[in-house]
Design goal:
With about 100 residues, the chain is mostly beta strands. Helix content is about 0%, strand content about 55%. The strands form 3 sheets. The chain has a 4-stranded parallel β-sheet, with no helix packed on it. A 4-stranded parallel β-sheet has the order 2-5-8-11, with no helix packed on it. Strands 3-6-9 form a 3-stranded parallel β-sheet, with no helix packed on it. It starts with 5 loop residues before the first strand and ends in a 5-residue tail after the last strand.
């Protein structure tokens, strides 16, 4: 992510799949006052510590995606925003808790 200014990123049709990883599938974390607009569409994120995280200055929109088998599905923090449309499926994997 940038350290100044703004960035707009669109991610379509990707699959992030690991086995109970500690990291994040999609992490939006701009620093130094920068902002990030991220759009995730028609994608799958599974087997992560956090499926999607959005820190301060970031806005993530999730459409038509599947976020499952992660310790946490979505995790906004520090004022970050995650918008999820009704056609997105989110669930956690108890064995990774």
């Amino acid at each position: 992510m940038p350290t100044s200014g703004a960035v707009h990123v669109s991610v379509d049709g990707v699959t992030v799949d690991t086995s109970c990883a500690a990291g994040g599938g999609l992490v939006a974390a701009p620093t130094g006052g920068a902002t990030a607009e991220v759009s995730l569409r028609d994608s799958v994120i599974t087997g992560q510590g956090v499926g999607i995280s959005a820190g301060a200055g970031s806005h993530v929109t999730v459409q038509g995606s599947t976020i499952f088998g992660n310790t946490l599905g979505v995790a906004p923090s520090g004022g970050g925003v995650i918008d999820v449309t009704a056609d997105t499926r989110i669930s956690v994997r108890p064995s990774c808790l």
